[in-house]
Design goal:
By secondary structure, the protein is α/β, with parallel strands linked by helices. The chain has 2 domains: about 10-210 and about 290-315, Aldolase class I (TIM Barrel, Alpha-Beta Barrel); about 210-290, no CATH class. It has 14 helices and 11 strands. Strands 1-9-8-6-5-4-3-2 form an 8-stranded parallel β-sheet. Strand 10 (about 225-230) and strand 11 (about 235-240) form a beta hairpin. Mean pLDDT is about 95; it is low at about 1-5.
Length: about 325
Amino acid sequence: MSAPENTKNRVCDLFSIKYPIIQGGMVWCAGWELASAVSNAGGLGIIGSGSMYPEILRDQIKKCKEATSLPFAVNIPLLYPAVQEHIQSVIDLEVPIVFTSAGSPNSFTSKLKSHGITVVHVVSSVKFALKSEAAGVDAVVAEGFEAGGHNGREETTTMCLIPSVAKACSIPVIAAGGISDGKSVLASMILGAEGAQLGSRFVASEESSAHISFKNAVVASGEGDTTLTLKELTPVRMLHNDLFRELSKAKENGATPEQLSEILGKGKAKKGMFEGDLEKGELEIGQIAALLKNILPASEIISDIVQSYRKAGGNKLGLRFKF
């Protein structure tokens, strides 16, 4: 891919995008409509494959290619049961960029890069950032404790994680966790990131495939309404509801991981985020939800980020990117 003119940082060069704004590949919320809208607005849209059967992902990729001529990516959680099929799909359909998460970057990085695919891995610590760099990835997403969905056990906040990873790695660092506007994008760049990934902000977008009831719950949430829980299984940040309270009570009563897994069951994320069951479903969202007050088109979200970045003085600080 050839880089656009006047690119000022390595993230824009790497992805051939106008702005170093990346949309998170959230399960049940990030389909082709959102990914193409973000890419068409100058950022990097991502299809979240973790909630998709292989045939669904292939259809999503084809529709995204029809909706945009610009680069987009696919996020592939490496613990996904059909990961081999997803990997083959992105190779066969010539997806230009893949973000991997929830597993070892050694698993598929070499294979993807041998097919000319740019690879980015999501990490929650310096240790795994260095392992990712050693595995040959082109960039890392350093995701802080504030982020929604599945997260690291370390509970390292974005403010601490970004400068540590940026200092340790030579490859570009993309900040994630607690970022929703131009001011927080600017803050992450001052700390050493060269791009920012936003998940929760794009959940509350018109093009998000999340259920409207979930979107409304996100923008209605307040401070302290999310918690990182289930470290006994896979850590996940959830919006408080009946399911969360049932899990919390079981933990207080000494439930085993097996018992917690039984309560969580299967399909609860789909039930909550995609089908809109706000009490019995799993509602994954970041702490930044408390600051979100509206549901906007993706293009308007990106425009607002650019304007607030400029207003905050981002173009005057000598950083490696000017909006």
